[in-house]
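LAB NOTEBOOK - FOLDING QUEUE
OPERATOR: T.R.
BATCH SIZE: 2
PURPOSE: Compare the predicted structure-token outputs for two unrelated chains run back to back under identical settings.
PRIORITY: normal
REVIEWER: second-year student, initials M.K.

ITEM 1
FIELD SEQUENCE / FIELD STRUCTURE:
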Amino acid sequence: MTISKALTIAGSDSGGGAGIQADLKTFQELGAYGMSAITAVTAQNTLGVHGVYPVNIEGIVQQIDAIGDDLGTDALKTGMLFSGEVIEAVSERIHHYGWDNIVVDPVMIAKGGAKLLQDEAVRALKEKLIPLTSVITPNIPEAEVLTEMKITSLNDRKEAAKHLMDMGAKAVVIKGGHADDKEVIDLFFDGTTCEELVSPRIETLHTHGTGCTFSAAITAQLAIGMTMRDAVLTAKEFIRAAIEDEIGIGAGHGPTNHWAYNKRGEK
């Protein structure tokens, strides 16, 4: 029996809706054995983040080496990498082990608009990590920071995707949730195919962890051997189900439903 393995290098969310908790749930639901290297511990729930406690560089590297020296991985994703030093260390270890199927969720802009990465970290992301990337999955504000361009139209998104490809990414998904469109239009570009992935906009408060979950779904699908396009399409269906079939827990912005995709298949 062949076991497909997926690694997440990201922060921990004590509320379970985002970060490594969302990633591991998603890996499990989509048939990949999940592993993690934690970059920071957060105290958070549906009402917000109440504390952030970074793991030191040595601790992050040792976690990655523990995976690389024994288990290995078929795909990995990065989430919250909060400093240039962390980004450089993670990039070096990815290069050291020769890993591919690298999914980068560039967690840079908080939902309230706060910038989560300093300028030196953005530079490290562009110079060190993006050139190793199989697919990068920014939302529109994150794509604006990375490309240093204003994105107000679908054509702008296409231009931004080309810029990200020029930085070294092999494929790009620019998520459309932040746009004012009546539907959500995610743009997929791999240098050959430029495809608009359209889905209904769902009115709900329970969207915590959508970016983490979407990128984790891509990672799991790449780990089990799917093509990039098919991995992205499955991830789109996975996150749509997770948002639509809400579980409604917590007093604030609740988590998505990581069971939904497979439970729909059981009906």
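ITEM 2
FIELD SEQUENCE / FIELD STRUCTURE:
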Amino acid sequence: MRTISIMGATGSVGTSTLDLVRRDPAGWRVVALSANCSAGELAALAREFGAEIAIVADESCLPELRDALAGSGVEAAGGERALIEAASRPVDVFVAAIVGCAGLAPTMAAIEQGGTIALANKEALVSAGEVMTAAVQRHGATLLPVDSEHNAIFQCLQGGRMSDVRWITLTASGGPFRNATMAELNAATPAQAVKHPNWSMGAKISVDSATMMNKGLEFIEAHHLFPVGLDRLRIIVHPQSIVHSMVEYRDGSTLAQLGPSDMRVPIASALAWPARMDTPCDPLDLAAIGTLEFRAPDETRFPATRLAREAASHGGAAPAVLNAANEIAVAAFLAGQIGFTRIAAMAEDMLQQGTLPPPPATLDEVLLVDSETRTRARALLQAA
């Protein structure tokens, strides 16, 4: 029996992970589960899986969690310190699925235990890539990517040498607006933006997919996970989301990982690594799919991938600034404060506004860049 902790247990990645754990109850023991609030849902999961501890990041939700867990024997806790303490409990697999920079400190705490991290929080490597990868090496931890694209690359690299790689290609669905005109993008609503054609995801990541910022952030993440150089990373739009990414080697061979649009596939790859495990996902029917399409990204309509590439090339604090500005802009869009095309424009404004902070050398410095950028972004919103 292996032990597992899941931070972000009530989100799409967390619930998909628990679905796999539920199908193999003799193979797993759940140590810690967390949610931002969702106290009732979190308590139900903690009871079902017999977790040692359940944590709400929003401490105001702790009384509700305690009431819901009364008599269960499951410890209830709340706040950032509780998250970090729970993440510090040694487990065989730590699933980092908290959305945004809120997941940075717990992920770092898990890394410091030297275990296996199934990483679904892309902001960890976008904002703190150099700090995190240095910590992974220092503590002997293992990072296994859970994002479908990075997990696909990871699988395609098995048995190969990084020095033999010619290209790493990240595929992008293009989101719900891939065929939209600029006029349609300018008029796009939050309800339209969160309706992803292929994947079932949370609101924030769905909007990121619609702007293509999600792919830009994944580009930066891939730069840290697979250090072949920025000039060997590229993005291609693939509307069917069947090919999740590709690796081309110097002999002309291209390896691609294909699979259904179901997060349980890459999660299972990370949970079972270096072996394989069963999933309930239907096998691909390529004859029924018929055609796989590929096209170059349009950075005029979707400038987010260009911004991410520029931030990665600049390095230092630039990716953290981009990520923080994007989070504030997406929240403003979802709240009806700004239009859809203003999301990327606002992120670009923040990257070009004054002198960028010095490169952060510690997690605290990364979080300071993040906090200061959010403050400036909110001020920019109020001035608009």
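REVIEWER COMMENT (ITEM 2): The mean pLDDT is 94.
FOLLOW-UP: none requested
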